[in-house]
Amino acid sequence: MKILVAMSGGVDSSAAALILREQGHEVVGVTMRLWGGESDTGCCSVSDVDDARRVAQQVGIDHLVFNFSDDFDRHVVEPYVASHVQGTTPNPCIECNRHLKFDRLIERGRELGFDAVATGHHARIVTRDGRPRLARGEDSQKDQSYVVHMLSGADLDYVLFPVGDMNKSEVREQAGRAGLRTATKPDSQDVCFIGSTIGRAGFLEPRLTFNPADVVDSTGAKVGEVPAVELVTLGQRRGLGLGGGDKRYVVAVDVPSRRVTVGDEAQLFVDHTVVANVAWPHADDEAFVLSSEVLVQGSAHGERSAARVERDGNRYRVVWSRPTRRIAPGQTVVFYDDTDTFVLGGAIVTE
Amino acid sequence: MTTVQNSASGYVYLDHAATSPLRPEARAAMEPFGDVTFANPSGSHKFAREARRAIDEARDVVAAAIGCRPGEIVFTSGGTEGANAAVLGAVRRHGGRAVCPATEHHAVLHCVEHVGGVVVPVAQHGSVDPGVLRSVLESTDDVAVVSVMAVNNETGAITDMEKVSHAVRGRAGNAILHTDAVQAACWLDLRTLWPHVDVLTLSAHKFGGPKGVGVMVVREGVVLEPLMLGGGQERDRRSGTHNVAGIVGTAEALRVTDETRNEEVERVRALRDSLVTRLTADIPCAVPTLAAGEGSAGTAHVCLDGLESESLLYLLDTAGVCVSAASACASGAMEPSHVLAAMNLPKSRINGSLRFSLGHTTTAHDIDVAVDATVAAAARLLAVKS
Predict the structure, then answer these.
(1) Most exposed among A318, B13, B76, B327, judged by the fewest C-beta atoms under 10 Å?
(2) Average pLDDT of the segment spanning A88-114
(3) ipTM for the complex shown
(4) Identified catalytic residue from B68, B100, B303, B329
């Protein structure tokens, strides 16, 4: 097969390229240039491109760089900023996977005549009932099925995850065996376009207007102040100017009226969560999910909670089997089957 | 016709504006300087004198091709150093502002921006309008240096240097006029440029010389603050041990370029015109960037409106055709062209730009292969889109 492998300059995609090459495929590596601004953390810094190119040379494949920075701005950075303006908590990595790593790259791969696009994600694509199904990666510590849940059946037919059935230690071993310079490179942790020295607030400050807000308790009495309501997240405990005393958590963020409400932990638990922008891998997955109990994961590597999903027009309610800690609006929930293995869909929390 | 490694391997190389293959005459001239005449020309012994003589002879050859005095030649490390030395050297020495058109190569543009200079908009055809330059100079006090390229590296647009010179002399009489003539050496008689400017810079590898050597011509009496301080080589204008072999190769390449220029311009222009005519006839969305017959003979710049250069370049590469689009950034990604943006081209055209640049190795067969490959690539991408 002729395969386009996305190489971020990290060890997982390095190993993916190596494995596909050793399997005898015709492989071309590509690094996507996504963020044009300054950052020292991300997967698109010049030194990461250098690493990807050097690994491609060592593996014996061609290496290209695609400049998708306009699409990245439009689909990831601008919505990330807009989301903060609304006081929600976005997951830019998921939007990048949705719009760049998959949509844009798959489109590019198809137009250039590739048979498949591969990435270094820790997830597996298995055949179930005669069609492709996304499943958790072999390494449960590194599983990334949550962040690639949006892949449709057609996408899954075109995508490969060569390291999805490996443990991270095996991935590093493979890269080390081949002498790849990325073998011991640390995993990336942070949002790629936000430099570690400026942080989220420093990134957002020139891009939106921060508004101070009162922090009130459930009776409406003012108990503190925050300098930027846009930076407050549901469930947050620190940085609220509350001083000592009982543990109090943010239980509501009201940006238009510049008010943050705090309460005790019990107030964070809810019996249902409203979601929208649902992505179903296959069209009939919806009917299945609406008729069965599923396991729902509300953050990367987060816990799973049993729930039923109900539909109300374009909105869906995730009804928890037992009260569950609230998930901030803007975050993503992913539905897994009752064995906690296969992805059945995903959605974005609205309230 | 010279043989180039890439032609032998079946590749068609149409990226001469990025770099042109080393001319065999230059390679032969450089050969003795690897081990036989290896000495540092700044020494006083026999070996040093031999190396010194080679540089002095090279300087005479280069001066003859430019129509300047040998003493006005400064050998540098390349076009970028020349541009930096001219722009920064003028500002550091004399104070005042730097001015350049928006379509300059980054080697000039980034220097001008670095010293807070003035960037002049260009006309739609891609070179600066002398009238616009004149009015900018009128409203800018204390101009130290004006830098205007002779031939644009992306589009091939040619500047009327005589008119630019009149504009500068009339409005900023004390300003140093520098021309980046890196893309001009193959296609314009440098003797026709030099009378109009104070500083002229070249890059050897663009005319079949080696990489890592440049020529800066500084008119007698014009003083620039040197970038490189040290041993005082090049009459204190550029310190650093001479790259003897490179300088010898540069002189030989420029000599051959100059001697063959008239016939090469005619030959290559015909190939270029044929390329543009066939591309625009066979690809519905292909738009030539310059009017027919305009621009330097070696450049065919075409935008495939609505398609993406990155995809086109990949498909052309797999078909064995080496061309380029705009300049690449540090990561190797294609950056949207600042030149085409300055010319106010719509984004859909800028994103689909292709530069075919021809040179001393280009044959009619190369053009045939390039046309077929580009037509096929465009057809493929258009078919996938629809």
Answers:
(1) B327
(2) 94
(3) 0.87
(4) B329
